[in-house]
Amino acid sequence: MDSNKKAFRSMAVLAMLLGSFWGGGAVAVEPLKIGMLLPRTGAYAALGEAITNGVSLAVEQNNGHFGGRPVELVSVDGGSVGETLRTMRRLIGNNGVDVVVGPVHSDVGIMAVRAVRDSHVPLIITNAGFNAATGQRCAPNVFRTSFSSWQIAWPMGQVAAERGYRNVVTIAWRYGFGVESVAGFKEGLHNAGGRVSKEIYIPFPELDFDAALAEVAELKPDAVFVFFAGSGASSFVRDYAAAGLQGKIPLIGPGFITEGLEEPGEAADGILTTLHYADSLDTPQNSRFRSAYQQKFGQAANIYAVQGYDAGLLLAQSLSKVAGNTENSEQWFAAMEEETIDSPRGTWRFSPAHNPVQNIYLREMRNGTNQVLSIAAENLSDPARGCSLL
Asked: Helix crossing, 210-219 with 231-242: angle to 10°?
């Protein structure tokens, strides 16, 4: 009889303990705090919004939880280079985020990488393409779901040479990514027998292109390779057509010149770009993504949304494998390294330097959409020059 009473009391205690976890007085699961280091104002505000939308869609499709933990987005304005270190310290120290997603601007990215190198908090770069992030400044806790400057510009050099564009003028904003994009294009073009006859740089974020376009008209190159993005891309495309250069001198570049254009109209028709995504990719993943994005946000998805969405998929999948445990960073980072992302852009995985190994598509702008012509480079991996993880 005594043994039965003891057993009953033990079961009652166990029931109370379980009730404290799962009953009406349940112990709350710690939220997963994601710091969103993305621009809210300026030339890249629309890019930051699209990335945020992509992450939000992935959160919604996982019922608001990653690895069993409710997701909380902690958004800050990540558009100022000078404020980046202070902003990152606030996210990691004051807000206690588990991971930082962003940024857009490469110069902001350089500072963000510096801020996380001595921490166990991972940085998931959702746009900034500066080569050093997965090159000389690579780190175990720095991952990228976007691209490197080299990765999307080098293939266009090959394409240009194949199309007979042997004498090319380049125009770009003068900051890290613009300069690196030109360098990657030059490498691809020179390797294929072409040359860049003139490099023209515009101070960031200036939108006065008149002098550059006048010089192009005078030089009459075979093609113009250009890097601008956001509102800068929209302005340049309109000004290029207004200057009478459209249809006379082909306009080529990495795909950001045509991504998210504000009412591009006929001014954008015929622009050739290389990028790791295209609106017209005919895959079930892309169809589902574009439909869900349109329904939720009332606008068409673009590459920035894809990069944010893939960051969400990466976090959802890796945290599921570690049961939401972000304290064991080594285990979590290893899970991220092993992930294969079934993305709207196509399936991709990480290189040893934590940059996507992915297809780069050749696209042409037609009637307001980027149409795939071919794969310019299949499963292309960034060379990751100087990365200590290799």
From this structure: 50
Q: Which CATH number fits domain 150-275: 2.50.20.10, 3.40.50.2300, 3.40.50.300, 3.40.50.12160?
A: 3.40.50.2300
Cα 60 to Cα 75: distance, rounded to the nearest angstrom: 17
DSSP state letters, 24-84: TTPPPPPPEEEEEEE--SSTTHHHHHHHHHHHHHHHHHTTTEETTEEEEEEEEE---STTH
- For the chain, how far is it from start to end, CA to CA, in angstroms? 68
Banded model confidence at residue 381, pLDDT cuts 50, 70, 90 = very high
- The answer to whether residues 186 and 155 touch, using CB atoms and an 8 Å cutoff, is no
Domain map (residue ranges) of the chain: 32-147+281-357, 150-275
Biggest CA-to-CA distance, the chain: 104
Reported confidence tier of residue 368, pLDDT bands at 50, 70, 90: confident
In CATH, the number for domain 32-147+281-357 is: 3.40.50.2300
Q: Locate 215 and state its tokens.
A: 């010089």
Write down the pTM of the prediction. Answer: 0.90
Q: How many CA atoms lie within 13 A of 150 on its CB side?
A: 15
pLDDT in tens, 290-324: 999 999 999 999 999 999 999 999 999 999 999 99
Residue 4 confidence class, pLDDT cut points 50, 70, 90? very low
